[in-house]
Amino acid sequence: MIKFQRFSGVVHGRARAMTCIAAIVCLAVLGGCAKKSVPAVAKGGAPMEVGVVTVTPRPYTLTRELPGRTSAYRIAEVRARVSGIVLKRLFEEGSEVTEGQPLYTIDPAPYQAALDSAKAGLARAEARYVSAKLQADRYDALFKASAISRQELEDVEAALQVALADVAAGKAAVQTASINLEYTQVFSPISGRIGSSQVTEGAYVQSGQATLLATVQQIDRLYVDVNQASTEVLRLRKALQSGVLHSAGQGEGETRVTLLLEDGSTYSHAGTLQFADITVEASTGTVRVRALVPNPQRELLPGMFVRARIEEGVNPSAILVPQQGISRNQRGQATAMVVSGEDKAEMRVLTAEHAIGNAWLVTAGLKAGDRVIVQNLQRIRPGSAVTPVQATNLEPAQSSAGNTR
Known about the structure:
Layout: H1 2-44, E1 48-54, E2 58-79, E3 84-89, E4 96-97, E5 102-106, H2 109-144, H3 150-183, E6 185-187, E7 192-194, E8 204-205, E9 212-229, H4 230-242, E10 256-260, E11 271-281, E12 286-294, E13 305-322, E14 327-328, E15 334-339, E16 345-350, E17 354-356, E18 359-362, E19 371-375, E20 386-390
Parallel strand pairs: 1-20
Antiparallel strand pairs: 1-19, 2-9, 2-13, 3-5, 3-8, 4-7, 5-6, 7-9, 9-12, 10-11, 10-13, 11-12, 13-18, 14-15, 15-16, 15-19, 17-18
């Protein structure tokens, strides 16, 4: 019995020894794992090198590009002012004509006869006036001698006034006949390029319907009419009034306008803004804007489709950020990663409504000196330690003509 208890105590002692050995081994393994995990955390937390651009506000001219069409500076429809047969056409179709240049000759014979008749009528009226004047003078002397009554004198004076009126009517008839005779020679009312003739020699034209003979258009300068949304007009005015934008010119007539032609080229002559209409088109919610563009080489023609790039104003402290540095969150807000003062990545929510070439115009959320991360964005998260370096291989932001909103 004593031997059994001694054997049992030995077994229990050995079990306790084995348990202690196992515990020591587990602690050693856990300690080794802990030691190995320390360098892994340090390696994962090493600052990531990121390319940044430093925010530097600078003056920038904001422009808006709008579709439009050209129209002639002046248009004159040459119409018949007297009726008759066209005898001659005195111009080449499509040529340049000057103001006062003769274009057509309408048969003047009937109008010459009318003028001669009017002159004869005037001569008769003037002769009757002379006779009435002499009679009135005689009756006046007789009345002073009490040889005639006042009634007789008044009748003669009235006849004199009628004769004088006949003379005035005769002069007016002569003038009318002279004007009609002059209208048989049709002259160009303006200088410009004349189109095709609507009539030929031998055609009968009428003054009552004012037959269209030809059209002359002055195109040494042209109007460009575009439509701008009324909301944009209000936004621009508020920006100018608040000082966010400065006027690009001293007045509307000095605001620069550049044209882009249908083939994509830029027109060589810049124009100026003339006016913006005061009425909003109800069906489209737009306001008509008109610019005046020089056309010395007649390169532009009326009715051409163009895109007008209008300088809206100058932002004296514009912030342009490369597009690769701006993203959108789930709410659609523009965001950017910025390097904080502790060299950690920081998420910023921005206001960036307008793309300008390869950059975004940021109006809120950034300030001068901020370092915006534009390279290695996929490998960092907000709060990550970073090593900022100047970004390379970036295309420069476009110049002031690049805003094609």
